[in-house]
Every structure is written in C-alpha cells, then in structure tokens.
Design goal:
Helix content: 10-25%
Order of helices and strands: EEEEEHEHEHHEEEEEHEHEEEE
Number of helices: 6
Strand content: 25-35%
CATH superfamily: Ribonuclease Z/Hydroxyacylglutathione hydrolase-like
Shape: globular
Distance between the termini: 41 Å
Strand order of the largest sheet: 9-10-11-12-14-15-16
Mean pLDDT: 96
Structural class: alpha/beta
Largest sheet: 7 strands, mixed
Amino acid sequence: MARMDVLTYGFAFVSDQGGFGFSNVSLLTVDNQRILVDTGPPSRRAEVFQALQSHDLNPDDIDLVVLTHLHWDHCLNVDMFKNARVLLHSREIDYIKSPTAKDYGAAFYVADMLDKLKIEPVSEGDTVVPGISIMETPGHTSGHISLVADVDGETVLVAGDALPDTGTVKRGIPYNVFWDVDDATESVEKMLDASSVFYPGHDRPFRVDGEEISYIDGPGRVELTDSNEGGEAIRLGYRVLQHRPVNINLLQKP
C-alpha cells in the first residue's frame, strides 16, 4: 500500500503570453521505495527541491522517477534525480529522438539528459513496485502512461495529461490532443472505469462520485506579485471560461 504526497500542485493557467506549465509532481512511498511521478518544468525546480526537503528528502533519495510523457512541463527536472531509475514508455523515447518540426511541446533536448540516466521502458500492466502498476493512456501523446496505485486501500490513478483536469471528465477528452482523438477518448473512459480518485496533470486531486466531482486537497487561491517601483505595474485580467476549448493538433502523426 502506497502513501501519496503532492510536491507541486498542477494548474491549467494559460495567458496571452504563453503557458505556465504548472504540472502536478507526486511522491508515492511504498515501504522504503520513493517514487516520483513527473518532475515539472524548470520554472518550478526550486519548488520541487523545497518540497522534497519538507519531507526530509533530497533528490538523491528518490529511487524511481516515472515520466508520464516527455513534454517540457512534465520532464525537464529529471536530471535532478541522478540515482533514480527512470521509467517511461518506449514510444516516448523513440519519438523524442526525432519529433516533428513544429512540436514545440516535445522536449527534444531532454534526449541528452536521458542518455545520462538509468532509463527503463515500461508498458501496460508492468509492476513498478507491489501495489503500483503502469496503465497505457495514449492520445495526448503516443506513449503517454499513467499510474494505478493502491493508496490507503483505495485505487488511485495518477493521470498526467491523459486526464489533465476535472473538465476532462465532463468533456470525455483532454484539452490538448497531439496524437489521436480516438485514443484520447478511450484512455479517459479506461481511467474512469479503473478509479474514482485522480491526480491529474494540471489540476488539484479530485474524486468522482457519479455526476459529482469534488476536490480532495490543494490550494484554492494563487497569488501573482509585481511591483510598481519602476513607475507602473502590469495590469492583470483574469477570465474564467465555462467550457474550455479542446486543442486538437495532431503533431505527432507521421
């Protein structure tokens, strides 16, 4: 049975100046094994380190890193964990070596990092440690994986961007699809059949009970800081959409 701790919470913010990429980084502990799911973007490198310290850990204490996929906002701190075995799907490894030209989300530069780490390809049903297994959840990317874990006697799904937010449950599809629409919708159905507790890629952990969705934990408020000591601060606008548009851009298709 695993214990789950969130090191950094995911948020699905976007702006007219680009995406923030604030992804969920989770720590699963099983006996003496410490498993990190995703590593977050470089902009949160210090936050990941500080969150580990708050658990009396440092990067060298992590035994396994599971990368759901190789987009920059989920994998670019992987080089912090030089002692860890790094698990990911072979399709992600193959694609990142030669991504399509306009696939700016794919962190092609991580290929050099991976060459220096202990990489282990995994696939559907593989056991990470007892009580934690791999689920293939393609669609967002071709080799996307999620984790199924027994946490306190309950099946929990660490979903990555195959199920990035609560809205995915109602839409039936993640808000970004770069590989295949049918695969993406089938992956959502597969995850909802497997669990009712989700740790998504860009949202707080939540529970699904029939038509009801409820958050389990995580901050409900985020603060942005600027200054006007140079004369004028930037004005901010915050817009909440009732329905998030789905971005279907099948960049990974050959």
